[in-house]
Amino acid sequence: MSADREPARSTAPLAAGAPGTSAGAAATSPSVSSPASSSPSLPREQRLEPSGRVARLEHDELTDSGVMLSIDGAEQSHVEVSDPSFLLHDYTFRIASACTTLGPLTPLTSLHTRTSLHTLSVLHLGAGALTLPRWIEAERPHTAQTVVDYEGGLVDFVLDALPMTCAPRNLVADAAAVLEDGGELAGERFDVVVVDLFNGSDAPEPVISADFFATLLTALEEPGRAASPHTLGDGEPADLDRSLLLLNLGDVPGMAFARSLVHRVVTALAKEYPSLSAWDHALLSAPADVVEAEAEGNLVLTLRPFRAIESRESEVLWAAGPHPGEVLTGDELRTWAEGPADAG
User: Where is the region Disordered (predicted)?
Assistant: First the structure.
């Protein structure tokens, strides 16, 4: 499934509690022109191991300083070299909005003056061109980031052409095993885990299994376990219970795969934390025609195990866009997930 080539309608994910934008907010993407003079020397190609697939970086004609990563000709990522906070693709914008609205990644510009602030940690399963790590670096500097990808050399290839000020820790590993006993990240905890490993019903079973999702949930930082205090300068405690698990799901009209996977993930949450009303801790965000099962596309599923998602937060997330879009949580999400498997 190729990436959405239309720019997201909004370009600055809202912080929690920020005023919402209108549903028809106009796009404000960088202007289309020839690549900026500061752009890297492209195109570049590299054959990856162990798959043997070919990664290619080239200028993206949609924006002024955009660079596109493709693998074997299929687009994977877009990076705006002059402004990493700009997110072209719909699903990356929705992930970023969830991180700021529902999660702990409130941009520093919206926080009070601080004397002490917990260093947040983010795990990315699936690297691409490091679009989201670059956005996090721009919006919340000093966040500790770890990237896991199975393709040896991909991250080094990308960073050689498109360096970051603070490159993430880079592990070449199997995402399905990296957090398990004996894995490279066994026992580590993260404030945010982002899963961007598959884009349709042909996903490998190890990364869509109930056991995999249970392992991801146990890798989230729990309230009270942080090594350093979550405090702001005026002594007000920062949120201790906003750890997030985010998954990028892709599917075709009917959404049979996405529906079943959402149900599997929320069931894993309910099993891991039996006292929860699990559907109130899950939220789905996607373009309206995708949610309505009428179009192919990507959906972002967010789980927040340690605090239920409030209606006010859902409204802020919806207002952030892109539009037209839908946000489902609670009973609405359960009804959607339990829809007919042969829909469409």
Answer: 1-59
